[in-house]
Automatic annotation (TrEMBL):
Pfam families: AraC_binding, HTH_18. This is AraC family transcriptional regulator. Keywords: DNA-binding, Transcription, Transcription regulation. SMART domains: HTH_ARAC. Gene3D superfamilies: Homeodomain-like, Jelly Rolls. The lineage of its organism: Bacteria, Bacillati, Bacillota, Clostridia, Lachnospirales.
Length: 290
């Protein structure tokens, strides 16, 4: 485990090999109104817990509103972006770990429970248990700074305790699941349509007509609700699926570009490098590093 310090700077995990350790935790403060400049898609789990403030998290095609005491789970490969609103700064813990860190807990309680519990979703931690989880997260942060040779063991034990606590909340507490943001239902329907039909021709004009709203309203409201521009989100969804095809098939890069809705392989290559920080062919060759 390498030393990590709490810091008030952007945490961008969108590029390969961006987390050199198996575990990372930060305590981060954002001013109200801050918006992430880049979307996030990374090959490890993210858990964010809000200590104070409010924010909106857009994950894949779902919009969640988070407030004090809420915890969101974001599995590897999920597109997400957060927008921080309200009138006070947002303070949160951001914890990241790789899939391999789940081997221990899977051996204890079984793969089915772990897989079911660590899907995308928001848990509202009961108020009577928030002191406990915040103390646990603070302990993980303390040990991540490399106190001594026992710190890696304390981190592993602490992560196991955190995950078991989350699963217990899901299994035995009432009303811990936060619903998707119903105030933005139309934008969620539009995002879901894009997410499921990314391989088809999709334009802003076509979507405005399909959902019976104006082009300008769709563009403005989609950005407000998700943090993504319409075209930006469409391209990110297509790149996400292109990554999957690059790793799971032997299809040519040109064929993958067309399969994912791009009508120009050169544009696909440029978009891929801009979002992933690496060319498609190099991404495919670096499969073991992902």
């Amino acid at each position: 485990m390498k030393k990590n310090k709490s810091e008030n700077i952007p945490v961008d995990f969108s590029i390969l090999n961006d987390m050199p350790t198996d575990f990372k935790i930060d305590r981060i403060t954002r001013e109200a109104g801050f918006q992430m400049k880049t979307s996030h898609v990374h090959p490890f789990y993210d858990i964010t817990y809000l200590i104070n403030g409010e924010c909106t998290c857009f994950v894949n095609h779902s919009i969640y509103k988070l407030s004090k005491g809420d915890l969101i789970i974001i599995p590897p490969g999920d597109i997400h972006r957060s927008t921080f609103h309200g009138k006070i700064p947002v303070e949160r813990y951001v914890l990241s770990f790789r899939e391999e860190e789940l081997n221990w807990i899977r051996s204890l309680i079984g793969d089915e429970i772990v897989s079911k519990s660590l899907k995308t979703g928001v848990i509202s931690i009961p108020s009577k248990r928030r002191d406990y989880i915040e103390a646990l997260l603070n302990k993980l942060l303390f040990e991540s700074e490399g106190q001594d040779i026992l710190s890696p063991a304390f981190i592993q034990a602490g992560l196991l305790e955190l995950l078991l606590f989350m699963i217990r909340c899901q299994q035995y507490e009432n009303n811990v699941y936060k619903e998707i943001d119903v105030d933005n239902q139309l934008m969620q329907e539009i995002a879901t349509y894009i997410y499921e039909h990314y391989d088809k021709k999709i334009t802003l004009d076509d979507m405005a007509e399909r959902f019976h709203i104006s082009r300008s309203y769709l563009s403005k409201k989609f950005k407000q609700a998700t943090g993504f521009g319409f075209k930006e989100y469409l391209v990110n969804v297509r790149i996400k699926n292109a990554c999957r095809l690059l790793l799971e098939t032997n299809h040519s890069i040109t064929d993958i570009a067309f399969e994912c809705g791009f009508n120009d392989s050169n544009y696909f290559g440029d978009a891929f490098r801009r979002i992933k920080g690496i060319a498609p062919n190099k991404y495919r060759r670096n499969k073991e590093a992902i």
